[in-house]
Amino acid sequence: MSEWLVKGGYAVVSVTVAAVYGLLLSGIIARTLARSQGRIGVPVWQGFLDVFKHAAKRTAISHGVMFYLGPILRLTGGIGTLLFVPMLYGSAVFGNFHFAGDIILIIYFILFGALGMALGASEGGHPYSAIGIGRGLAQFAAFEVPFALAVISLAIQYDTLSVYQIVGAQQNGIASWTLVTNPLATIAAMISLLGSTGYSPFDIVGAPQEIPIGPRTEFQSDFISLMQLNRAIFAAAKLVLYMDLFFGGATNLLVLMVKTWAIYMVPVFVGAAFPRYRIDQSIRFFLRVPTLIGIAAVIFADFFFNAS
Amino acid sequence: MKQSYGKDLPELPNEGLVYPDTEYFCKTRPVPVEPQFKAMEQVRNWARANSLAIQAFGTGCGAVELRPLMTARYDAYRYGVTGSATPRQSCVFVIGGYASVKTLKRIIVSYEQMQNPKFVVALGSCTVNGGMYWDSYNTINRIDHYIPVDLYVSGCMPRPEALLAGFIKLKELIKAGKCEGANKYAENFDWYKANQKKIIKNWNMPDYNW
Predict the structure, then answer these.
(1) CATH of B40-199 given 3.40.50.720, 1.10.150.530, 3.90.1150.10, 3.40.50.12280
(2) For residue B89, what is the nearest residue in chain A, using CA coordinates?
(3) For B129-167, how does the pLDDT look when each residue is reduced to its tens digit (9 = 90+)?
(4) What is the ipTM of this complex?
């Protein structure tokens, strides 16, 4: 019993740290972009203020039960993803939960939030929400393909479906990172990350100029506060997952911050350089070259690493 | 749950709507919402003041002065001023200059969709007394008669610096707890509604837009 309480307490610490880090990261990135544009930019703690301000609204309009559940399911998806990714390898507090096939569960958890959000936003009844959901799920189906192929490639390479064991196999210096041992899978997954972080050119889901921020159009006060919090947790969870799978994981918080920040800068750089795709262009993009790279990664892994 | 409407109050007539539409809209009236836990209210007001999301709805020529605020020269972001694409998530409504009767209708819809507390900054002389359009047949003279205004930035046109100074003044007002426009609107709902209906002849929307 007490073991479960301790484990639960550690999970709360993990989620809190991920939320704080995710909110800070968004501030740091906004600040960096502002400096590169010759501006001063928002304070780094702006994310916390936004979450608090929305939660402090005095009124909230609901459209029904599913509208309530939408942000909650989204938060469940974010926290669920985080709890099955080891934030720090070998740490008792940040080790989180792991079992033999957790990577499959994580992939489902990533989808879970998007589906919950789709149900919640549809009850809002706003036409822009519907367009946003349609675009979001279509794009989701597209960028999951290269990521799933990369994960299959890793499963063949390390002969396991556990994130914990994949991190464990990469602890012998940079030469043992997946980035070096299986570059094709890393490239396919990094392109998939461009889609899932929602920066330009793949920010079609919430394009402010076309479909005022998409599925979130109708959400206000508490709802949007919860979703902004989830955005931070989910971003942190995804970055930690990528760091664990491809960049050798981390054994202390400083390494974790540096590595996840560096991974996050990839979509930010691409986003600063490219204009937005249309939805059909985006789907075609993911289903062509990245998918081919993913298939090549699977063949590569099967050829070089398959023992049987 | 945060309640914002009066269940026991008489329903709104919604006379401007015809049958299928009457089923889609709420008939309840807004009520003023007093802040809970007054000790926390100062902290909340501080957060509200430092996170101002402007609704991206340019209602007149003055809206053109909003754009430079986001550029490197003025950079309103550093004061926590950002844009918001939907009225649901925004808290500052900048009335950009003259409001024609047609625009006033949209202003009312957008304003009512924003959540309490909400702040209105009226920009330019036209919003104060009609400015150079004071005798025009299709613009209103005082925006104050139709929605509550927290702050005026006068001038024709005011420069972006003036608008930025206005935002800083608005932050002071919010921190002092003086921006209760949403409650004022709910308290004097009938007066505002009568004024709006007097000027908008073809009223074909619900009496309160949730």
Answers:
(1) 3.40.50.12280
(2) A220
(3) 888 888 988 888 889 999 999 999 988 888 999 999 999
(4) 0.89
